[in-house]
Amino acid sequence: MKKKRMVLVMAVSAMCMMAGCGNTVKDGKEALEKGDYDTAIASFEEAAGSDDKEEAAEGYCGLGMTYYEQKQYDQALEMLEKAFDNGTVKTEELCNLVGTSALCEEDYAKALEYIQEGIALAEEKQGNEKQETLLQEMKYNEIICLEKTADWEMAKEKMSEYQAAYPDDDSVAKEAEFLQTR
User: Fold this and answer.
1) Which long-range contacts does 43-46 make (Cβ < 8 Å, 24+ apart)?
2) Could you tell me the pTM of the whole model?
3) Which of 15, 44, 71, 181 has its CA at 20 to 30 Å from residue 173's CA atom?
4) What is the mean pLDDT of residues 61-74?
């Protein structure tokens, strides 16, 4: 659950690029970027109530990101899934936000599903530093989910892959040591 803010900013930017942003969505995005959560929620709720399915999807997506930023992970999870149900395209950033929200809500099976989907999407687009940072974060979170679901063998395998891919990440040493006892 590293680097949440950077992922949120990437997701907000992607959200408006995908739909062209109606005024309420644009206002919500600007408020969210400023940390004005009440204004963001009001704007995104208005968009979510729209008869236009695309605008509604963007409203739900914005609500999800706003709740995520406020650490209201249960609401973030609900709103982001409504966004997907209404046609929001799954991106690696959004899958990571949903997966991380589910992880924080201790819904490890759902978290694992979304994180693995995000990893698959990110691996298709590897190349820039932000993408690599997001991929590393998701791969770490995948290990945590596997541990929480007691899939020890797969967690060990993923940890081994992680350490091979990111040998300079000393922060996982304790986690790797823990897995060796399982």
Assistant:
1) none
2) 0.83
3) 71
4) 96
